[in-house]
Amino acid sequence: MDDAAVLKRRGYIMGINLGEGSYAKVKSAYSERLKFNVAVKIIDRKKAPTDFLEKFLPREIEILAMLNHRSIVKTYEIFETSDGKVYIVMELGVQGDLLEFIKTRGALQEDDARKKFHQLSSAIKYCHDLDVVHRDLKCENLLLDKDFNIKLSDFGFSKRCLRDESGRLILSKTFCGSAAYAAPEVLQGIPYQPKVYDIWSLGVILYIMVCGSMPYDDSNIKKMLRIQKEHRVNFPRSKHLTGECKDLIYRMLQPDVNRRLHIDEILSHCWVQPKARGLSSAAIKEGESSRSIDPQWTPEPGSDKKSATKLEPREEARAEARHETRPETKPEEDTVQVARQSETLGFSSEQMIRESEEGPPQQPPETHT
């Protein structure tokens, strides 16, 4: 029985194809019971790799069944057919994803970014309080509903955190997610705290929201790591960001895992609180930099400058990245994904050198309000 017939028997009228990968695809469908459109993720067990079937898929199904938060994509139904196909019926992000939104409209104004980032952070706090980590936070996985509210999706890399006998979280050892959003400790293959990894990815997302570009040039992972470990964060002067916003991003993009913010600290930060923003927007003066701009932002001689940060349509690759649950990969295996991600957003590398100012904010980094 084909997918349309299977879905019809369950009360869904299949619509258009939303994305397709090597062993999973996503279709739109109209639910006769719910009376609105949904997204249906269809996974073919016969085509999926063993590690996905034994580890990632069971985790994803378990976690999706337990989540219930207004800023997380709702899961309405999960069922499997005798021929080995799994159907996950989910809330549809009718306005697309945040990456497409920013590519179309440019960087968000801080008030809009604050609202969306607060929604996302609330969803992450909900997950972390349940000891669930996402581990693949990126703009492609943030869907937008009809009112452009954030809906966190794609829990294919998520897991329940394990604790030792003393109650401490056990470190994770596997690289997963997209290199452009991955924390330095993950890229280096160091055992990492998965909740702390999520926080770094939140920092990258907020930077993209307000700057419309990537915080780091990820076309060369070794160079990117060096800049990250020196705690360098360059902000485009042209965006005129407030000091509070830069301060929050800088503290999330903290290479020292013991000093990186926790989710509760993010939600209580003065920039996230709409009525209590305390830092002066002049905390970082225009054009002022604590260090010189790092020369590694310059493209390699003879390289295609467009490949660094220029927005280009990547329909087939983007559909697979958004909708297919992928097995975990080692950093050295991620070169194709890194190259693709580095082309998704922002200014050219030359513009980033010419138009950037560097953190840290002059407000002491350890002060929280």
UniProtKB/TrEMBL annotation:
<keyword id="KW-0547">Nucleotide-binding</keyword>
<feature type="region of interest" description="Disordered">
    <location>
        <begin position="282"/>
        <end position="369"/>
    </location>
</feature>
<keyword id="KW-0597">Phosphoprotein</keyword>
<dbReference type="GO" id="GO:0007286">
    <property type="term" value="P:spermatid development"/>
</dbReference>
<keyword id="KW-0744">Spermatogenesis</keyword>
<comment type="similarity">
    <text>Belongs to the protein kinase superfamily. CAMK Ser/Thr protein kinase family.</text>
</comment>
<keyword id="KW-0808">Transferase</keyword>
<feature type="domain" description="Protein kinase">
    <location>
        <begin position="12"/>
        <end position="272"/>
    </location>
</feature>
<dbReference type="InterPro" id="IPR008271">
    <property type="entry name" value="Ser/Thr_kinase_AS"/>
</dbReference>
<dbReference type="GO" id="GO:0005524">
    <property type="term" value="F:ATP binding"/>
</dbReference>
<dbReference type="GO" id="GO:0000226">
    <property type="term" value="P:microtubule cytoskeleton organization"/>
</dbReference>
<feature type="binding site">
    <location>
        <position position="41"/>
    </location>
    <ligand>
        <name>ATP</name>
    </ligand>
</feature>
<keyword id="KW-0217">Developmental protein</keyword>
<keyword id="KW-0067">ATP-binding</keyword>
<dbReference type="GO" id="GO:0031514">
    <property type="term" value="C:motile cilium"/>
</dbReference>
<dbReference type="GO" id="GO:0000287">
    <property type="term" value="F:magnesium ion binding"/>
</dbReference>
<keyword id="KW-0221">Differentiation</keyword>
<dbReference type="GO" id="GO:0001669">
    <property type="term" value="C:acrosomal vesicle"/>
</dbReference>
<protein>
    <recommendedName>
        <fullName>non-specific serine/threonine protein kinase</fullName>
        <ecNumber>2.7.11.1</ecNumber>
    </recommendedName>
</protein>
<dbReference type="GO" id="GO:0044877">
    <property type="term" value="F:protein-containing complex binding"/>
</dbReference>
<dbReference type="GO" id="GO:0050321">
    <property type="term" value="F:tau-protein kinase activity"/>
</dbReference>
<keyword id="KW-0418">Kinase</keyword>
<keyword id="KW-0963">Cytoplasm</keyword>
<keyword id="KW-0723">Serine/threonine-protein kinase</keyword>
<feature type="compositionally biased region" description="Polar residues">
    <location>
        <begin position="338"/>
        <end position="351"/>
    </location>
</feature>
<keyword id="KW-0479">Metal-binding</keyword>
<dbReference type="InterPro" id="IPR000719">
    <property type="entry name" value="Prot_kinase_dom"/>
</dbReference>
<dbReference type="GO" id="GO:0035556">
    <property type="term" value="P:intracellular signal transduction"/>
</dbReference>
<keyword id="KW-0460">Magnesium</keyword>
<feature type="compositionally biased region" description="Basic and acidic residues">
    <location>
        <begin position="302"/>
        <end position="333"/>
    </location>
</feature>
<dbReference type="Pfam" id="PF00069">
    <property type="entry name" value="Pkinase"/>
</dbReference>
<keyword id="KW-0832">Ubl conjugation</keyword>
<dbReference type="InterPro" id="IPR011009">
    <property type="entry name" value="Kinase-like_dom_sf"/>
</dbReference>
<dbReference type="InterPro" id="IPR017441">
    <property type="entry name" value="Protein_kinase_ATP_BS"/>
</dbReference>
